[in-house]
Specification:
The strands form 2 sheets. This protein has a 7-stranded mixed sheet, sandwiched between helices. The chain has a 3-stranded antiparallel sheet with strand order 2-10-9. It is globular. It contains 4 helices and 10 strands, in the order ββαβαβββαββββα. The termini are far apart. It has helices at residues 36-54, 69-85, 139-149, 208-214, and strands spanning 5-6, 29-34, 59-65, 93-104, 107-117, 127-135, 155-164, 176-181, 186-187, 203-206. The structure holds inosinic acid. Inosinic acid (IMP) is lined by residues 67, 102-103, 108, 132-140, 164, 185-187, 191.
Length: 216
């Protein structure tokens, strides 16, 4: 894993009052952990690292839905921009989607279910980039990588926007990572708590009010 930004446990984040927060979430958040602008600037660098590492070979980029969709579209946009502007070479990209479910409330349920997406036959013999929102215990990613191996890709690398410092981690570390974060439940920028908060611009820490309001 290269040059990820480490957010320390002692970091309190930014006050909600310093940013624009939708009225419907004002009572449900503790702080802004990573503002939208910083997310974008970091993704720009991840795109550059991927562009350099994958050379001229075609790349199948797989979006893990739903939480990965914003990171995925912003990352692909930035790789495409490098493809248009670098002149000497470009990475031919194809896009695929997979939908998994592994979480209920703020706990991983320990099993992952593939509940939709493309047929993974397309990865055979190809370089594959899996794009995920967050690695927590690492169980989802280990299981997904096991699944993908059955379709015999040439190589598989993972880009995760966030990596949580989780005591129960299985040790899985992605090749590309935006930010290493404290063991807190975060929402926004497509990350959800029971399908809420995906429409929040910044990555924020949810508070007890938000958890109690939206738990099932
Ligand atoms: P893992 O299997 O424990 O690594 O969990 C990974 C999945 O859990 C992610 O793809 C997310 O969908 C979800 N997840 C874990 N932590 C968070 C969080 O803090 N906020 C939102 N979703 C999370």
């Amino acid at each position: 894993m290269t040059n990820s930004i480490k957010i320390e446990d002692s970091y309190q984040g930014y006050s909600l009052d310093s940013f624009c927060i939708p009225k419907h979430y004002e009572e449900d958040l503790e702080s802004v952990l990573i503002p939208y602008g910083v997310i974008h600037d970091r993704i720009e660098r991840i795109a550059k690292d991927i562009f350099v590492d994958f050379g001229k070979e075609p790349l199948v980029a797989i979006c893990v839905l739903k939480g990965g969709y914003k990171f995925y579209t912003d990352l692909i946009d930035k790789i495409n921009s490098l493809n248009r502007n670098q002149g000497e070479r470009s990475v031919p990209l194809s896009v695929d989607f997979i939908r998994l479910r592994s979480y209920q409330n703020d706990k991983s349920v320990g099993t992952i279910e593939v509940i939709g997406g493309d047929n993974m036959e397309s990865v055979k013999g190809k370089n594959v980039l899996v794009v995920e929102d967050i690695i927590d215990t690492g169980r989802t990613m280990k299981k997904l990588l096991g699944l993908l191996e059955e379709f015999q890709p040439k190589c598989v690398k993972v880009a995760s926007l966030l990596l949580k410092r989780q005591p129960a981690s299985n040790g899985y570390i992605p090749e590309y990572c935006g930010f290493e974060i404290p063991d807190k439940f975060v929402v926004g920028y497509a990350l959800d708590f029971n399908e809420r908060f995906r429409d929040l611009h910044h990555i924020c820490v949810v508070n007890n009010n938000g958890i109690n309001k939206y738990k099932v």
